[in-house]
Description:
By secondary structure, the chain is an alpha/beta fold. The chain contains seven helices and 17 strands. Helix 2 links the parallel strand 2 and strand 3.
Amino acid sequence: MEDVVIIGTGPAGLSAAVYAARADLKPLVIEGTTPGGQLVVSYEVENYPGFPEPISGMDLMELFKKQAVRFGAKFLAGDVTAVKALDGDYLLNRGTETIETRTVIIATGALARRLPIPSEAKFYGKGVSGCATCDGAFFRNRDVIVVGGGNTAMEDAIFLTRFAKTVTIVHRREYLRAAPIEVEKARSNPKIQWMIPWVIEEITGDQLVTGATLRHTETGETRHVACDGIFVAIGHDPQTEIFRHLVKCDKQGFIKVQPWSAHTSALGVFACGDVCDPVYKQAVVAAGTGCMAALDAQKYLESK
């Protein structure tokens, strides 16, 4: 019987592991198939407090893990495939293995939706990004593309004009889902250009992105556009499928937590990081909520 099992090893899960381990709860951390979460694909992280020089996302997450191990956290590779409540405790399936625990901290994150083209994977982290606020400063005086037609795409495009020389919004439909006020802000910005209705067919480059081939969705016309970066802003998918029978989620699938806490609708189950954050999706925010989850789990165990 474990006291705490943490599912996920991004900034939220590893911060929860540090705090739970320091409380002598000997947390068991299930790493998942991509240890370190989304941050490991970031070539350089410049905005994490305490690191005045850029550090790769992979190196940053390795430091998080070393700190958790130093305090006594245990790690297991692989994914949790099912979670079941049982007499006030929880059973977790990990392959053929069953793990029993008094509390669960969910830190499985949210994956940025990707473009359905093979070349996107090749250049992800090498000019293709899912986070404008994370990577925008790398594109000073460069030409960039933002893909999407919702509020996030408009906000990202406006944010990127602080750094980029030009920002081109590419969207597959004439209709934009963004709020009219956000569209108007984008249309009134002289740095922002529009390619609607177009889709990216292929991303081009050698080691880094140098351009993209676009196709007009109505005429079939193709055109090559030179650019240095492509920001994909078509939404995020929270990794909550195996938990939705257990905890309440919003319409998008993000886990609902009680205000100013990490408590979910299920006693003894806590959530932290992007899995319950449809707004910020920043490593420092995720780390803070990981701390909250560990402290809440500690208090819950003491109350039992």
